[in-house]
Amino acid sequence: MKHRTAPTGPGSSYDDEFARFFGERAHQLRSTAYLLCGDWHHAEDLTQAALLKLYLAWPKLDRHDRLDAYARQVVTRTFLAERRRPWRRREQLTDLPPEQAGEEGGPEQRMLVLRALAAVPPKQRAVLVLRFWHDLSVEETAAALRCSTGTVKSQSARGLATLRDRLGPHFHELSLTSKGGSA
């Protein structure tokens, strides 16, 4: 990777590039963080921490065509690192999410899936979010999590089994809905 020297001070081209990236991607990264942690306030904290890390690394990055993947990777790793430190867990002040645009499948189905996803262990949840929400390949997911493809496959299988157990009779109905069928 080439290292670039960054012009310093507000208004530099790096600040402008990062501000543009932030404006275009912060919401998407926050949604990924929410899928990982299940709490909008914690998702905001994760996103801010990840974007700070990305900002600090910004002048050194030369592959701006891969920024989305790198940013997702930073969010996911920040989530997993926090989960390893139980003293960093925070008290949840509210269950109310911020206003969101309507989603396909209705709010009842969305809440059902999100509650089931929250029951999946963190590493498995990270694999499921990257594989099925962001539609990454097994290899891309393994690279993002710095693990083997076999680990991605096993964590994915275990995570899906947990979702099946948690969703019970709703699992088949949700599978058909997500594939465009009708329940």
TrEMBL record:
**Endoplasmic reticulum as a keyword?**
no
Offer one example of a GO biological process linked to this entry: DNA-templated transcription initiation
Q: Which UniProt keywords apply?
A: DNA-binding, Sigma factor, Transcription, Transcription regulation
Domain RNA polymerase sigma factor 70 region 4 type, by residue range, is: 111-163
The RNA polymerase sigma-70 region domain, residue ranges: 26-88
The UniProt entry, under CDD domains, shows:
Sigma70_r4
InterPro entries under this entry? Answer: RNA_pol_sigma-70-like (IPR039425), RNA_pol_sigma-70_dom (IPR014284), RNA_pol_sigma-E_actinobac (IPR014325), RNA_pol_sigma70_r2 (IPR007627), RNA_pol_sigma70_r4_t2 (IPR013249), RNA_pol_sigma_r2 (IPR013325), RNA_pol_sigma_r3/r4-like (IPR013324), WH-like_DNA-bd_sf (IPR036388)
What GO terms are given for molecular function? Answer: DNA binding; sigma factor activity
> What would be one Pfam family of this protein?
Sigma70_r2
Family according to the record: Belongs to the sigma-70 factor family. ECF subfamily.
Report the PANTHER family cross-referenced here: ECF RNA POLYMERASE SIGMA FACTOR SIGM, RNA POLYMERASE ECF-TYPE SIGMA FACTO
Protein name in the entry: RNA polymerase subunit sigma-24
